[in-house]
Write a structure and sequence with these properties.
Blueprint lengths: L2 H11 L3 H11 L11 H14 L2 H7 L5 H13 L5 H11 L6 H10 L7 H12 L4 H14 L6 H10 L5 H17 L1 H10 L4 H13 L5 H9 L3
Helix pairs in contact: 3-5, 4-5, 5-7, 7-9, 8-9, 9-11, 11-12, 11-13
């Protein structure tokens, strides 16, 4: 049985051409073809597959010829709630280096809710990928931080990480700005003071302020303060 032929055939039956055209533009990964399946349908399909097949079998045997196969695999890894840390670590280290766009990266991060069970252990993995110098490996680390680590225990470490991100990649800078905006929501005073006193590249600084101002979780008077430090 060719599991991938069945999966591709099923995903083609869920194809939405208009969505494909729109999504191809925003994902911006010319090297990876797509079918055009909306994410809620992929998540529903992943759950159906998990009832039919062993999750480890699926994760190991689904190929990565289409964007949707990457997304499907990222969802399935997250569905495997029984993973011990050693198995989870292996999946993360196998999957992350293959990421070539923000959509797969961010979906993988949001799928890894098992992180809450292994916060300290996965934080070490995050520190590892922060040092890789590769755009989507570093983005993975930053998006993981904003998804699971923005609390008083980790805030100081996160601000130090933000300060030391120097890579000139668009999707890294966007993730760093996004992370700063979440820190502003969690602890406005500390993060605001950090922005005032820390040398961050102009794009990241201003994009972080823009994202925070657009957030309904930032108060009106806080938004006015942020406008004053926009460069």
């Amino acid at each position: 049985m060719d599991i991938n032929s069945d999966i591709i055939k099923k995903m083609q039956s869920m194809q939405d051409i208009k969505y494909k055209e729109f999504n191809d533009k925003i994902v911006n990964d010319n090297a990876l073809p797509s079918i055009g399946v909306r994410l809620p349908l992929l998540k529903k399909y992943a759950k159906q597959l998990s009832l039919q097949y062993d999750l480890d079998y699926l994760i190991l045997n689904i190929s990565q010829d289409y964007l949707e196969q990457y997304l499907l695999k990222s969802i399935l890894i997250g569905l495997n709630k029984k993973l011990d840390f050693s198995a989870l670590k292996k999946y993360i280290f196998n999957f992350v280096p293959s990421i070539s766009n923000w959509a797969v990266c961010d979906n993988f991060c949001s799928s890894l809710k098992i992180t809450k069970k292994y916060l300290k252990e996965i934080f070490q993995i995050i520190l590892y990928f922060l040092q890789s110098g590769k755009e989507f490996e570093v983005r993975f680390a930053l998006v993981m931080l904003l998804n699971y680590y923005i609390n008083e225990e980790y805030l100081e470490q996160i601000l130090e990480i933000i300060k030391n991100v120097k890579l000139d990649f668009y999707y890294v800078k966007m993730a760093n700005a996004w992370l700063i905006s979440y820190c502003l929501i969690k602890n406005f005073t500390k993060t605001y003071n950090f922005l005032q006193t820390t040398d961050i590249d102009l794009f990241t600084h201003n994009k972080a302020i823009q994202k925070a101002i657009e957030s309904f979780r930032i108060l009106g008077e806080q938004k006015e303060l942020l406008k004053k430090i926009k460069k």
